[in-house]
Amino acid sequence: MNGRLEAEEQRNQRPDQELTWSWGHRPRSALDRAEAMAPPPPPPLAASTPLLHGEFGSYPARGSRFALTLTPQALHIQRLRPKPEARPRGGLVLLAEVSGCCTLRSRSLSDSAAYFCIYTYPQGRRGGRLGGRRRAPRTFRADGAATYEENRAEAQRWATALMCLLRGVPLPGDGEITPELLPRPPRLFLLVNPFGGRGLAWQWCKNHVLPMISEAGLSFNLIQTERQNHARELVQGLNLSEWDGIVTVSGDGLLFEVLNGLLGRPDWEEAVKTPVGILPCGSGNALAGAVNQHGGFEPALGVDLLLNCSLLLCRGGSRPLDLLSVTLASGSRCFSFLSVAWGFVSDVDIQSERFRALGSARFTLGTVLGLANLHTYRGRLSYLPAAVEPASPTPAHGLPRAKSELTLAPAPAPAPPVAHSPLHRSVSDLPLPLPMPQPALTSPGSPEPLPILSLNGGGPELAGDWGGAGDAPLSPDPLLPSPPSSPKAALLSPITEGVPEMPASSGLPPPTPDAPEAISTGGPPDHLLPPLGTPLPPGWVTLEGDFVLMLAISPSHLGADLVAAPHARFDDGLVHLCWVRGGISRAALLRLFLAMERGSHFNLGCPQLGYAAARAFRLEPLTPRGVLTVDGEQVEYGPLQAQMHPGLGTLLTGPPGCPGREP
């Protein structure tokens, strides 16, 4: 393997920072999660250490031979015949660009070779620069032995090693690599808002998300949401022990519903630790932008951002997620994972709703209109600086016990049933065109065969992926067949067949199209905050005056391409306060937002721009009219206060990227 490939691989090494856990090490309880969050020992092998080396044929092309070398970070490919390449093209497949791997066999009984296919999504080139990702599967032929059984064992050895590296499963030192090393496929509960963004969420999900997670061998059930707060109702009645994560395929709003639904359950202490993820198909994809940066990818929008986040989801891995408890003027409380905004940012967010058909461009148009009609708002901002210890004593114990533990026997009370409309459908019920040639692919240990899918705009034609003219097509050869006792998808799904339950029997009020924002009744107490309207304790800082905007943000990104808090982390335990005082010109405010695309707005030296890292804050608007938003959702206007709860949730982020790139 030439030095150029090794140097390129070294540049793409991951830092020493490790994941909270990966798909290969999935915690199943709060205690397991706490143990899993301890930093693991450093990897025993360097990123360039060869793990496997072998010679293989190609498929569907005949006659070519390749030398493959697998390292912890990449697969090196070097052509041996018909003519060795001096400078191999496509000779380095980074595992960060691989969604999964499977073994195959020929449908011709006379073919003793076995095959393994690697699903890659490399970035193309546009004018000499990196462009969008494209699906590029690579299939290799294991034919070094005389019998199919021996060739199959070799193909399975390589496929297993690749999947172990992708899922964070350590490889044994004795070289015995068998499919039994792989754990059961993770089970994901997918929620899709078909109206997200420009209304393309369901199409993007079918064409990009479902094929990729199927290639990764992830087991899933998918439900389309039908109305506001539908996701909240679903997660409140979900048996969380059957799932390894809840993933929203939409914008930031659907995840807001999911988190507040988890915190509204009687068992919220355990429920909120359920890993949640986001695959961006909305107009506001701020958290996905932060996840993309955490993974070491270049800033991206649209389908490119979706493919990046899907690749990270396939790899597994999570981080603790800080959640901000926001108490509104009425005394109701909700939890934020993103931001609280007042002034220019919230005005643009809400007023641009009428341009939702434009997707993320709605915010650009809204910003231009907002600059043309710039307002200032008088108010009072108070905050507890991060370096100051709370004046009130911290409780000696941690989070309070769940309601069920306080009032019932040790066994938690079952969640009340949720009224499901007849339109609740799992992915197997939904019309997916472009049928796959039979037999359909199945993922290892999947409850049911994978659904008929459209792979990135085209059906997974075996002749296209795994065959060519004159070649016998290949059939899937799963690494691990589903055990006879595998649960069926119907048992894992909250969907009920037959007559839907009536709202009167569920104990919940009937849903209405204009249901209010998700409000959580559970969650930890805000021990840093006195009641609204009462004096603040010593140690708080208060600012009063005219503001153009006030933003309290938790992660680094305000949008997929807006880095509002460049040094923020998912689990830094801080709320990052940014404000712009009155008196700023329209041109200066525009320069701030343009610089925010690179996260360099604090370097402009704007005298009206302020920043503080805090643990809690109180905002008191003194202007009678205005707009307040929490995670992009409009809430009641009036005084509010909030406290950060470090690491309360868990976010599916995938493995971390290059040093200095983590949000």
User: In this structure, how is the largest beta sheet organized?
Assistant: 10 strands, antiparallel
Computed CA radius of gyration, to the nearest angstrom: 26 Å
Strand content: 25-35%
Based on secondary structure, the structural category is alpha+beta
- Give the averaged pLDDT, no decimals: 76
The residue fraction in helices comes out at 10-25%
Q: Give the CA-CA distance, first to last residue.
A: 34 Å
Oligomerization category of the chains in this entry: single chain
* Count of DSSP strands: 26
How many H/I helical runs? Answer: 16
> What are the low-pLDDT stretches, counting only 5+ consecutive residues below 50?
1-18, 33-42, 389-471, 481-517, 659-663
Give the overall shape. Answer: elongated
Q: What does this protein look like?
A:
The chain is an alpha+beta fold and 663 residues long. Helix content is 22%, strand content 25%. The protein is built from 16 helices and 26 strands. The strands form five sheets. Strands 14, 15, 16, 17, 19, 22, 23, 24, 25 and 26 form a ten-stranded antiparallel sheet that branches. Strands 4-3-2-1-9-6-5-18 form an eight-stranded antiparallel sheet. It has a four-stranded parallel sheet with strand order 11-10-12-13, with helices on both faces. Strand 14 and strand 15 form a beta hairpin. Helix 5 runs parallel beside helix 6 and helix 8 packs across helix 9. The N terminus and C terminus are likely disordered. It is an enzyme of class 2 (transferase). It is found in: Endomembrane system. It comes from Canis lupus familiaris. This is sphingosine kinase.
